[in-house]
Specification:
heterodimer; A: two-stranded antiparallel sheet; about 0% strand; globular; B: alpha/beta; Rossmann fold; 2 domains; 7-stranded mixed beta sheet; 4-stranded mixed beta sheet; elongated
Chain lengths: ~300, ~400
């Protein structure tokens, strides 16, 4: 293994260690923003894990996020289960669900896949409501724990770090190599003997697992789970925009996308409360016109430029 | 010329400046939906009452805190009906804006989600638009949280009592057609109703749910009609309460009891269907004959330009009166002292005398009925002025 590879991992360890001190340094408001950032970094990084190499745009984040929140809510509220067992169950269900969906749909390509994943969150929301209505008869899903934002922040940080390390391992494995070929030309990949469906399904499954885990961790923060809120399609769009803004070509892309996006979003929200949704549209335009490969693309361009001059 | 107007401007600034300095300000924070799914309810029930209260208090010179007279400065945010957003904004209110007190959020989930944060900073929360059967467990957990609008069971009980009365009067039989919106509160109410109605000897001959936001409720209403039941109960939300009434009119649903839950008490409900909805029952209620309520409704109209709804509007205003009287009574901005004052005292409000038992107020309306253009309370707990229920008789004007 090359030294540069280990260097990347060392950087990750240093950054994670520094990020872990954030709750000690700031007040409640900035900690809250930190929780938001960690949540989106974890979601967007796991999105890039799959969509980066394969170029499949998935709008399914809200579906898996919602499943995680809903399982924690149901388990803790109706069956007196512990948070940790429900967290584990969420990961399992998120993974199985993603695998099933992947098997059924990853043959779709381009815009068909995008549309399908957008509908998925809505479909699962209705399915969950139907099950709750006909079989569970819930009295409202309360997730009452003693977790503070600091705990949730650390859990999300750990999740984000785990996604990153997993991505790092995959990108150096045969699987990662196969995915890059699929992203380049799927027909070629099939011809050289790669089981393209299997590779895509495995990656999509990891996205599902992590989406559900993040949803499960956020549930105690919301305390009261309603299907309408955990399956909000806005979340899926946020994840995609932040990931693309950062750049989906590198695993660390989402980190440099999420942070500026949320800072601008919150600043606009505080000063022009009715215009914040405009940021979403502007970000889209900026990505299309100026940052086709995200901040990552620009940073690497700059780096190459500097190297060629020296 | 320019110089003179500049001088005038400077003078104006000085005057404005001194008046601000002479008067102390008390900061009140309010976060509720202005956009998103719950905005429709919040702009009817929550926001106008916050506006009314702040204007009235400031017009009479502000809050009297000890020997100081303090004008209210209102800081308001839109939570976009998103709990994550609300939590973040609540933190902003507490740590950036440093508000002295807050108006409790709109919606059950939002009150519960923010109770830990507001609690951490010691803000008392007098929740109105939050209905739960877990009030005891929640208040034990959050010593800053107060409930004022009743419980899920109380709402179902109110409807059950009416069904029993109407059965005894011979207007309906044992059959009930029941539908519900498949969302948190609708599911919870329907679930409780299945238990309580069956206990009371009713048979739910038609039991159907529909997803939130269903545009076409005609199959639901056709099914209810075909069941032949003379009582129709819908545990519904704002968009579908309207949709169901519309279909009932189209189908000419032949029932003696017609009930739809949330938003039936909105003035817009009558605005949409006129006298066709005469004798329709709904969640909530108010005593319009009470002179205090009448005066409140008139002030609401004068200040906000909107008719107050016939249910939680009065409770929302009453919750702000409690906050006002507690701050003045405790004569301090110390939130711990004010919270304790709320627990220990009773308050004169538009809803009558209110007090808390384990942080829960037992004074509320549970069922009301449109009677000749006014939505009157027919069932409630510790409220006066309940009028007898009338049987529904057709859907003509």
């Amino acid at each position: 293994m090359k030294r540069a590879n280990w260097q990347e991992l060392i950087w990750v360890v240093i950054i994670v260690a520094l990020a872990a001190f954030w709750p000690m340094m700031v007040n409640g408001y900035w900690l809250g923003i930190g929780v938001d950032m960690m949540m989106y970094i974890a979601l967007a990084t796991s999105w890039v894990l799959f969509s980066g190499p394969t170029h499949y745009i998935s709008l399914a984040s809200a579906a898996f996020f919602g499943v995680g929140g809903f399982i924690v809510g149901t388990g803790m509220s109706d069956y007196d289960a512990s948070f940790w067992s429900m967290l584990a169950l969420s990961a399992l269900v998120g993974g199985v669900l993603a695998a099933l969906i992947g098997l059924a749909t990853l043959r779709l390509s381009g815009v068909y896949f995008v549309i399908f994943t957008l509908g998925l969150a809505e479909m699962i929301r209705n399915l969950v409501s139907w099950v709750q209505n006909n079989f569970l008869g819930s009295r409202g899903l309360y997730v009452l724990t003693d977790f503070t934002d600091t705990h949730l922040y650390w859990m999300l940080l750990a999740t984000a770090a785990a996604v990153y390390v997993l991505g790092w391992i995959i990108s150096r494995s045969r699987l990662g190599f196969a995915l890059r070929i699929i992203g380049g030309d799927e027909t070629v990949a099939r011809h050289v003997g790669i089981n393209t469906a299997m590779a895509k399904v495995i990656l999509f499954t990891t996205t599902g697992i992590f989406g559900a885990i993040v949803g499960a961790i956020i549930a105690p923060r919301w305390s009261y789970i309603e299907p309408n809120q955990v399956f909000s399609p806005q979340l899926s769009f946020f994840v995609v925009i932040m990931a693309l803004l950062g750049g989906s070509g590198r695993l660390w892309g989402p980190v440099v996308g999420v942070i500026p996006f949320l800072l601008i979003w919150n600043w606009v929200d505080a000063n022009f409360p009715h215009q914040s949704i405009l940021v979403l549209g502007l970000a889209f335009l900026v990505i299309v016109y100026f940052l086709p490969h995200g901040f990552v693309g620009r940073i690497e361009q700059l780096r190459a430029h500097l190297r060629s001059r020296s | 010329m320019i110089r003179r107007s500049l001088l005038a401007l400077a003078a104006a600034f000085t005057v404005a400046g001194t008046s601000v300095y002479a008067q102390d300000m008390i900061k009140i924070g309010a976060i509720a939906p202005k956009t998103g799914p719950l905005a429709g309810g919040a702009v009817v029930t929550q926001w106008p009452n916050v506006q009314l209260w702040v204007e009235e208090v400031n017009a009479r010179g502000g809050l009297k805190v000890g020997d100081k007279q303090m004008q209210i400065e209102l800081i308001e945010y839109d939570d976009k009906t998103n709990p994550g957003e609300h939590i973040k904004l609540a933190q902003r209110l507490a740590t950036q804006d440093k508000v002295d007190f807050v108006v409790a959020p709109y919606g059950t989930g939002f009150n519960i989600a923010t109770a830990p944060i507001y609690g951490k900073f010691g803000y008392p929360m007098i929740a109105v638009s939050a209905i739960t059967d877990k009030a005891d467990e929640l208040t034990e957990r959050y010593s800053n949280l107060f409930f004022t609008l009743g419980t899920t069971t109380a709402f179902v009980d109110g409807v059950k009592e009416i069904l029993i009365e109407q059965r005894d009067a011979g207007n309906i039989g044992n059959e009930v057609a029941m539908v519900n919106v498949a969302d948190a509160f609708g599911i919870e109410l329907a679930d409780r109703a299945r238990e309580l109605f069956t206990e009371a000897g009713f048979e739910i001959v038609y039991d159907k749910s529909y997803p939130l936001g269903t545009p076409d409720l005609s199959p639901v209403m056709k099914g209810a009609k075909d069941s032949g039941a003379k009582a129709f109960v819908a545990w519904s939300y704002p968009p579908d309460s309207f949709g169901l009434a519309e279909q009932a009119i189209i189908e000419n649903l032949d029932v003696s009891v017609y009930y739809s839950a949330v938003a039936t008490s909105f003035p817009a409900f009558k605005g949409a269907y006129g006298n066709k909805i005469n004798n329709v029952l709904g969640a909530g209620g108010t005593n319009v004959d009470d002179p205090v309520i009448a005066a409140y409704r008139k002030a609401h109209m004068d200040v906000t330009g909107k008719t107050a709804d016939y249910w939680a509007s009065a409770n929302t205003y009453a919750s702000l009166q409690i906050l006002e009287q507690a701050i003045e009574g405790a004569a301090t901005l110390d939130r711990g002292v004010v919270t304790q004052y709320i627990k220990d005292n009773s308050f004169d409000t538009v809803m009558g005398k209110l007090s808390f038992e384990n942080q829960v107020s037992k004074t509320f309306w549970s069922v009301g009925q449109w009677q000749d253009g006014v939505f009157r309370g027919v069932k409630g707990s510790n409220v006066e002025g309940a009028v007898p229920v009338r049987a529904k008789d057709g859907w003509s004007e």
